[in-house]
Amino acid sequence: MASSFHFLLLCSLLFLIPSHSIAKKSFHPKALLLPITKDSSTLQYLTLIRQRTPLVPIKLTLHLGGQLLWVDCDKGYVSSTYMPAHCGSSECSIARSKTCGECYSGPKPGCNNNTCSLMPDNPVIRTSTDGEVAQDVVSIQSTNGLNPGKVVSIPKFLFTCGSTFLLKGLASGVKGMAGLGRTKISLPYQFSSAFRFHRKFAICLSSSTTSNGVIFFGNGPYVLLPNIDVSKSLIYTPLIKNPVSTASSYFKGEPSAEYFIEVKSIQINEKAVPLNTTLLTINKEGYGGTKISSVNPYTVLETSIYNAFAGVFIKELANITRVASVAPFGACFSSKNFGSTRVGPAVPPIDLMLQSKSLYWRIFGANSMVQVSNDVLCLGFVDGGSNPRTSIVIGGYQLEDNLLQFDLANSRLGFSSSLLFRRTTCANFNFTSHYN
Ligand SMILES: *[C@@H]1O[C@H](CO)[C@@H](O)[C@H](O)[C@H]1NC(C)=O
Ligand SMILES: *[C@@H]1O[C@H](CO)[C@@H](O)[C@H](O)[C@H]1NC(C)=O
Ligand SMILES: *[C@@H]1O[C@H](CO)[C@@H](O)[C@H](O)[C@H]1NC(C)=O
Ligand SMILES: *[C@@H]1O[C@H](CO)[C@@H](O)[C@H](O)[C@H]1NC(C)=O
């Protein structure tokens, strides 16, 4: 009773403050920004956020289809603003937690009584664990689309505590994973509800391990040097829902938080790859279909798709000398015979055909061929075995130097195709700030 009385009082006081003084005090960014680096040994895409009080930089592996932000709370979590989410609280219901627990080795971050939990997931080792839901301060740079702007903070950012063992398989120095998936508590959802901006975000992964790519949260412009607004002229395709979770463990009835699109067929050099199209649709058990993944370094194809795909590609490159395969790839060529173009080695274009014949995602040499040594180039797609959960997993290498915008409100994906055509790359965001 007492607290609801205070709440009412606070509301009426806020009403009395003239609105212009509120506007002056609080800065409302229209978009936010995170840098992304590519780790050369794991090929994971990493980002850095500041969290806790006092703020510390936390290195995280990017998980495009991940449900949430999780960090290791077992080791080194020190913060005066850590707040566990108590069972029955609104935080637990926003997080859609179904479990309430006790902990015997606390109290400490990650171990408190009467708190709800979720399952932080590491898709690299396909392992998840039970973790306390909590809130803490997160601070992040805003942007006008051209440069980084003021740093803003979110005092009660929801996340889940992972454990040290869950970091296995992640890049060195990483302390958790940044989930950008389709849930109410993923980074993009929390950022857009904290600042009431468009429920959209865009990723632009750099192909270089030495210069940063970028994620924009919010609407465009997304400007890359030399002054190219890549939010213009995107091609759109619907985002499809998979009714069955694709996480390492989940409750019955939970949908997937990952981003699926509908690829209807594949063409190479405008010739159709003969495929079993049943594999391209998602069935009732959640099998099949095409998803986009930042944790797979290369696109993974179900075996029959891979064989047909590689077969057509090899046939179309009949005049080029094939050399012994280099794992994990199955089709490698002598690089001496290739011409070069603005968009990489001159090879037949690969088209992922979408909702209509005139709509496709075209993949050029820079995204299809991987230089494995001085004189060997391999087709950068891998065989995912038969009966995998998802038939086509579009991986990081195929996403690099393409901007992908996830428009959550309209459930659609906007993509730019290769930015190399437009004489820019994902490493061309101007990270010089006026506010340093
Ligand atoms: C949780 O409650 C149990 C008793 O029910 C107690 O043994 C334990 O120490 C408590 N843990 C924490 C973290 O407070
Ligand atoms: C196509 O794939 C589906 C799903 O795996 C399978 O049930 C069916 O037998 C396949 N059809 C052919 C002709 O191979
Ligand atoms: C090989 O064939 C492709 C497609 O027909 C052509 O573009 C390319 O120039 C040829 N390369 C060589 C080395 O003949
Ligand atoms: C990057 O942004 C800074 C700050 O606005 C500006 O001074 C600088 O000229 C920009 N760099 C380029 C190459 O445009």
UniProtKB/TrEMBL annotation:
Signal sequence segment: 1-23
Protein known as: Peptidase A1 domain-containing protein
Xref: InterPro entries: Aspartic_peptidase_A1, PEPTIDASE_A1, Peptidase_aspartic_dom_sf, TAXi_C, TAXi_N, Xylanase_inhibitor_I-like
PANTHER family: ASPARTYL PROTEASE-RELATED (PTHR47965), EUKARYOTIC ASPARTYL PROTEASE FAMILY PROTEIN (PTHR47965:SF103)
Organism encoding this protein: Quercus rubra
Pfam families tied to this protein: TAXi_C, TAXi_N
One example of a Gene Ontology biological process annotation: proteolysis
GO molecular function per UniProt: aspartic-type endopeptidase activity
Keyword entries, A-Z: Secreted, Signal
SUPFAM superfamilies: Acid proteases
KW Secreted (keyword) present: yes
Cellular component, GO annotation: extracellular region
Similarity field: Belongs to the peptidase A1 family.
Keyword hit for Flavoprotein: no
Predominant place of localization: secreted
